[in-house]
Amino acid sequence: MTTKGKKGYFGEYGGSFVPQALQIRLDELEKAYDEAKSDPSFKEEFMSLLKEYVGRPSALTECKNISHYFGGGRLFLKREDLNHTGAHKINNAIGQALLAKRMGKTELIAETGAGMHGTASATVAALMGMKCTVYMGALDVARQAPNVARMKVLGTEVIAVEDGQKALKEAVDAALKAFAENPETFYLLGSAVGPHPYPTIVRDFQSIIGKEARSQFIEREQNLPDYAVACVGGGSNAIGLFAGFLNDREVKIVGVEPAGKGLATGEHAATLSAGHPSVIHGFKSYVLSDDQGEPAEVYSISAGLDYPGVGPEHAYLKDSGRVSYTSVTDQEAINAFKLLSRKEGIIPALESSHALAYAFKLLPTLSKDQTVLVNLSGRGDKDMDTILPLIE
Ligand SMILES: Cc1ncc(COP(=O)(O)O)c(C=O)c1O
Description:
Elements: E1 9-10, E2 13-14, H1 20-37, H2 40-54, E3 60-62, H3 64-70, E4 74-79, H4 89-102, E5 107-112, H5 116-128, E6 131-137, H6 138-143, H7 145-153, E7 157-161, H8 168-181, E8 185-187, H9 198-206, H10 208-221, E9 227-231, H11 236-242, E10 252-260, H12 271-274, E11 276-280, E12 283-287, H13 312-320, E13 323-329, H14 330-344, H15 350-362, E14 371-376, H16 384-387
Parallel strand pairs: 4-14, 5-6, 5-8, 6-7, 9-10, 9-14, 10-13
Antiparallel strand pairs: 1-2, 3-4, 11-12
Bound molecules: pyridoxal-5'-phosphate (PLP).
Pyridoxal-5'-phosphate (PLP) binds near residues 232, 352 and 377.
């Protein structure tokens, strides 16, 4: 299955709705990416850094204790938490930094929510000798302090954004503004969102997750998984996993959004479950909007998931019916965080715990020969301050 259509569109979603000055910069980026894609040395350098610096391929782990606990299907994890810097974000950060280098840029700008993309950007900036500035909502600076410390140690300037809800949307606003104002900079966008060509670039760099997972699963089980599941914030870890399985019709694919305090309370960030088509940050997708049509205030316990938009390819995949999107609450994610930690000795990120929570509901309904593959997008070290008061 392909989601290609009009350039930069996935069905009716995607595109580029930006001022002309910014469009010129995006056109340059698109041209550079098209050239890089057809240059074997670019792919070679990307793949060699993924292997030798990130530590890929990341493991595929079967969780036998969890499967035994629920007494139903078998659970497998794609271990993006084991990557250098602790999440899937580094895959895309390396790809885009190589692109920046190719374009002769020496200054990176990034936004971050949970701080994992900010840390990945700070890391590649150090590796490649570039200056890096990360915009982060002031609320997120407070709730993801370990990652703020890591960025500073790596030599990156972290700018706390005090506008609006002081979270991911405002960080993207500030990063886009800084990028537009300074032609010397490269905007290293951290999720499969934004104007064309970002959703395609991020999907391509993250698709290593799905490619590896598919071949690892076949090698181990001589079969495909029955389910492939990932959490959806902007949608980069999910589209990276899903890309490997979209053509395998027998694999059911599920994206899990943050239902926060419950969809009925309005305090959530379940964009595909409760939003409507609109434009946000220069692209068309599902958006959670308020009465004035502005992006709504959103909420999730997880700093990496509280964004009122979602990647346009996910909007297309929802409408086409190929992928199902559902949501789980904060409490369900916290329970999953605790259960995986205690039963398997693996501490997941709060973001990834949303995908786990859905899998934990699914497993007891399956037979013993059915399999669920969850993308464990990151590790939970950064979430200790949030989680400790909530678990005994
Ligand atoms: C570990 C982890 N998983 C998932 C996400 C959500 O982002 P995306 O939907 O782009 O994968 C984040 C964002 O910060 C993250 O840190």
